Amino acid sequence: MLELNAQTIAFFIFALFILGGGLGVVTTRNLIHATLYLILSLFGVAGFFVLLSAPFLASVQVLVYIGAIAILIVFAVMLTRSMTRLRDLYNEQWLLSGIAGLLLFGLLAVGVILPVWGQNGARSGQPVSDAVIGTVDLGKALVDQNGYVLPFEVASLLLTAAMIGAIVIARDDQE
Amino acid sequence: MNDVCSINNFVRCLTQGGMNQDLANLISLLLGVVLVATLPLLTVILLIWVERKVAARVQDRLGPNRVGPLGLLQTIADALKMLTKEDITPLGADKFIYNLAPIIAFAVVILLWAIIPFTPLHVGADLGIGVLYFVAIGSIGTIKIMVAGWSSNNKYALLGAFRTIAQLLSYEVPLVLSLLVPVMLAGTLSMQGLVFAQGGMWYVVMIPVTFVIFVIANQAEVGRAPFDLLEAESEIIAGYNIEYSGFKWGIFMASEFLHAFTVAVLAAVIFLGGWWGPFVDQVPALGFVYLGLKTTVIYLFGLVLRATVPRIRIDQLMAFNWKFLVPISIWNVLIVALLLQVAKGLNLMPGPDQVNNVIAHLPLTILLLAGNLVLGFYVLTRIRGFGRAQRLADEARRSGAVVGAPAGD
Predict the structure, then answer these.
(1) What is the pTM of this model?
(2) Which residue, B164, B161, B166, B156, is CA-closest to B236?
(3) Partners of residue B169 in chain A, C-beta under 8 Å
(4) What class does CATH assign to A1-86?
């Protein structure tokens, strides 16, 4: 059933990146190490996008999640230097968050298992559609009135509002 | 088939000897990767010599001239010396990350060479998203400096890392906005596609303002004067790599030199027509020479700039970016987009069969160039006005203040 070719090997390497990185994020006591594990995990997701023939999403994943978000997290962590050498456990809600994590995992597992081994499982091997979508199609879909122009504009508005909010918070009251 | 065995049909060479087809493909691919990665490694040896010679000439010195003819072997002697130095890891350093940083530093620069089209036929990987790949890899480059600065357990290194993140994140904005304009003109994100689109006219003629923004933003991205705050010898000694010694420091230095050269190559590819030149249709290998020549022009300009201008302060750096470069970049994108629509409306665009026709490109070029000249003129007027206001303020302060008092902000 499982063919061992270059793609499968790459899949398992990237899966190792994602799971190992995710495990590292929650187990390490050093916050800088945690963010570096997070970067490894996000990099694995970018690798998955490449395997799924979605190079645009892969590069955006690297650009946005590693290049911007992860770096800002490291920046924030480095500014609070005393936080980088934590040795004690401060969080008292670990039981609650553990339950929430398990619930989410169960939900995702059901979401993955049902389509594959459920009553329609026989069709899961077939591709949903044989259309080849390139970067140009993606770009057109984002600005097409029959496509995703409304969600795209709403997301842009949200980001603009967040940026203006950040500027308002950061500026001096005197000015 | 009794073909002569050569590098062009390498896979067949191997399979003729009875090798498995898949293995032959893999070996041929690996050889390609090694070739693309080794070329920059060899180039950097020469680059360091060029840089030292140019800097020496600008500063009225001779530069390296003892080891080998014209001092050409100086870099090799330096590299050998570096290898013999003791490799020190500071106390309290985070060992694993500390050793990881130089590897990331070099890998990031080498990765950029994968998408550079050397000739019409020779390119490491002609990705459909080449330009985005360049930006994405560039953003990974920030990690190496941060990681190196933090893991060294040294406050100067950390200060250098802080400055770097602020600088690199800020200057990524005009860089990406300036890359948007050639992509708009060519209608593709692929590097090879960008070069092919410049068959009729180089983009540096069509959109010179974009080219200037790109070069300035890149100078900041590679951290060279006047944007060399991440090193700033006189303030934070050497910045993020202060604790590194021996070979690891050498890797940092080599990757920095190579990065400056790599962005010059990319500027030549995106704006100066890459491998285009006379007779390149008949002899594709000539493209390599043309690309080298164009790169040299941009690279030498960067070197002279580095050797002549003083370093700017961090607040000036930020003000220059957010109050000057970013607004101009946004205006630039809007103006070019508008002019492109005007050109489409007036039917000035070259047809799909006229890609290499210079005459067919002239109307569009004149239109875009006119728009760029207006924008450039406006920008220069603003700079002049700003400079005059600054001088007047300085004079007023000098005449009003006590002589010899420090000029505060």
Answers:
(1) 0.84
(2) B156
(3) 68, 71
(4) mainly alpha
